[in-house]
Amino acid sequence: MKVEIYSDIACPWCYIGKRRFEQALAGFEGRAGVEVVYRPYQLVPDAPEAATPHRAWLAERYGPQSVAMDARVTELGRAEGITYDFDTALHTNTFLGHRLLHLALAEYGAEVQGALKEGLLKAHFSDGADIGDRARLTEIAVAAGLDGERVAGYLAGEEGVEEVRAQLAEARELGISAVPTFVFEGKWAVQGGQEAETFRKVLEQVAAETSALVQAAPDADSCADGACAV
């Protein structure tokens, strides 16, 4: 079974959804036959390359409700073992990170890509790292198992740019407008950071081929157009 997860590095619900899906997968009998790959999606494609404080950006965009948005995600993340530190988090463009994830999948495989995705999410949400900085991205990549010289050279050039742009366009063509979105075998779709039990049931349904379509409620917790459901 192939599971393609459309998500953004700067999406807090994508981090929660990743944790919950992994919990469901760990309890799924057929987990050895499941391949999980990450596909790019940008909530704020026009975000600047120069990092700015997350709190200031969110407040400017959403006003007083931005505090509640961060507070809710922080509380729910804690239950999943995630530490959100929005006081130090930085707002920046995620395209470089998606290019790096593309490299990881193409040259190292899905398992290493998954480790890199985890490293990028932690760096962004827990460590206050600038995930638009090439040197910092290289450090994160090396920790996930990538070769440092290869990564540095890759990020310094234009490799992967057109491929990632094409994948972002494909996501739009597929109608994906919120993340995380989990696509099973290219036809079963679940949107949002669902509970682990929901993911477990979907895995079982897809494995048994008992449904032509599995679609989560449209108001599931997710992020769209730079905003996250609260």
TrEMBL record:
SUPFAM superfamilies reported for this sequence: Thioredoxin-like
Family annotation (Gene3D superfamilies): Glutaredoxin (3.40.30.10)
Every DSBA-like thioredoxin domain range: 3-203
The organism's place on the tree of life at top rank: Bacteria
GO molecular function: oxidoreductase activity
Coiled-coil stretches: none
Pfam hit, one: DSBA
This protein's name: DSBA oxidoreductase
Record organism: Kitasatospora indigofera
